[in-house]
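Researcher: I'm preparing a figure for a lab meeting and need a structural model of a single chain. I don't have an experimental structure, so a prediction will have to do for now. The sequence is pasted below. Please return the structure as tokens so I can convert it later.
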Amino acid sequence: MGKIDLYQKIYFGIKISGPDGYDFNYEDKNYNINVIGANREEGFNIPYVLITPKDIKEGSTIALESNNLETIDANKLQFNAITTALNLEYFLKDYDVPVVVPIIPSMPSKPYYQQLSRGCFDNRNPKSLDYRYDLQVKKIILDAKEQISKKTNVNVDDRVFLNGYSASGVFAQRFALLHPRLVKATCIGGASGSIPVPSSNIDYPIGIKDYASLTHKDFDLSAYRDIKFNYYVGSLETDVKSKTRKDEDGNLAPMHDMSYFDRSVPELVGKKQRELFGKDMFVRAQNSVDYLNNIDVNVNHTILDGYAHNADEGLSIIEKEEEFVKDAYSQNCIKKLEK
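Model: Understood. Here is the structure written out token by token.
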């Protein structure tokens, strides 16, 4: 059964509901998939997808990726989250990895929730659907650990592996900045224009100047240093230009460079980021990586020659995603299990 056939069978052939979810097998491996509903009593107002391998090992590390779809349509969001979860499980099928995908809505008139933008902190009402999604995801991780333990009698690692490409990669960047104690390693593709740096000279979501006022806690640099960050991007990432956003010289800015996208990086923060680290995305990314390595944050950044962001723009870096995800997870999240 191919991946697309698997999506069709699970999403269109079986209604995932109830506490038991749906059991399926793939390449001689057995899994359970479930859409866990929102649970306001437990602190999360959105559902999430959970895939649990039947052969999960004690101490396994959850792989988490946010969904990435610009819509508030519940059916489309759920399908996108299920396919995201199945993709990630497929990439990591050799390691029997539990996968979690929170189902976060998105619409242009609202803060960029799927990227944990600055506006995500504006709503201070915990009972609201759009209350701080980073805290909701934190609660989802705790709930997923309990769900896995109930199903398998296995306890997973306290920290998670964050994966993401493009918008979901930006989510991974920022969730790690907000909750470094929860993150073991990341694999982030197509998001090199918005690499956070824990500098007090620039505001969130790039720096930490206003971090304490937003989060009501101090930034934990020690925990941040314990995360292994893995970035990959195509050399043609900046070739496609936005139709509306412009750089300081009046030229159209790169479509996928979030520094020029006010909904993701506030205009003044983006301007400051470019002043500190460079206007060109690749120069800025290298300067950001150098800054991080100089303060002992472990970052690896790979640029692949001849690759673009999306398939309609050329040879897509997405085609290399499985390779990077497997390598990042195996190098950082299974050593404990091999001892």
